[in-house]
Design a protein that fits this description.
Helix content is 51%, strand content 12%. By secondary structure, it is α/β, with parallel strands linked by helices. Strand 3, helix 3 and strand 4 form a beta-alpha-beta unit.
């Protein structure tokens, strides 16, 4: 099982220490480090450690959310961002998605759910609570309608195929099998799609594709005799 390297960003030290202790029970999850949001060493440590996932509390921090997320993205561009928060505000969730969050998890969630989401995000999934997802998708769609002009035209043929598979709900290994590519090649195309669409996550890419008219493809009908 591939090791998932975590970095916890939260200004509540007791919480990150407790979470580190709980996550130690899972052999595929490793907390490589913890930081406060205003730690001047944060960017350098992330660049050196290159975590798979960074969890961050976008509310109870000493740095504005947009600034913090930009710092995290610049220091660890390959890392997935997970908002681990006590907020249930749809506007806050939308702001996090706009800033590049791949998931939004309540601190009231159980450990089993947290671990499930972290593993999914490491595979390339995105997750927002159902009660917030509608507002997030509508907000991202409206953003794209206001600012997009044929965004899919910039994609190469292979990049569009990868995006179509993402819209169909496929994950990285499934896309690789579908298109006859290696997972590393799929990852490269995925990052190129993100860059050309001006997004930072699978959720945003799928939302952009849907807003541009790219809908899930119909499944082949089951043949019956």
């Amino acid at each position: 099982m591939e090791l998932i390297k975590l970095w916890l960003v939260d200004d509540h030290t007791l919480l990150t220490e407790a979470l580190t202790a709980r996550l130690a029970a899972f052999t595929d999850l490793w907390v490589a480090g913890r930081s406060a949001s205003d730690d001047p060493r944060l960017g350098g440590r992330l660049a050196q450690e290159r975590p798979t996932i960074i969890t961050v509390e976008p509310e109870a921090v000493r740095v504005p959310q947009a600034e913090l997320f930009a710092t995290l993205r610049a220091a660890a561009p390959e890392a997935r961002l997970v908002a681990l928060t006590g907020s249930k505000d749809p506007a806050r969730a939308l702001a996090a998605a706009r800033a590049g969050a791949d998931a939004w998890i309540s601190k009231a969630s159980g450990m089993a759910h947290l671990v499930e989401v972290l593993r999914g995000v490491a595979r390339g999934d995105a997750w927002f609570p159902p009660r917030l997802l509608g507002a997030v998708l509508r907000g991202l769609r409206d953003d794209l309608r206001r600012g997009a002009d044929g965004p899919l035209d910039a994609l190469s043929g292979r990049e569009r195929e990868v995006l179509e598979c993402m819209v169909d709900g496929m994950r990285g290994p499934q896309i690789a099998a579908e298109l006859g590519l290696s997972t590393n090649t799929v990852r490269t195309h995925t990052h190129s799609v993100y860059a050309k669409l001006g997004v930072h996550s699978r959720l945003q890419a799928v939302s952009a594709a849907r807003a541009a008219g790219l809908l899930p493809r119909a499944k082949d009908p089951v043949q019956t005799s």
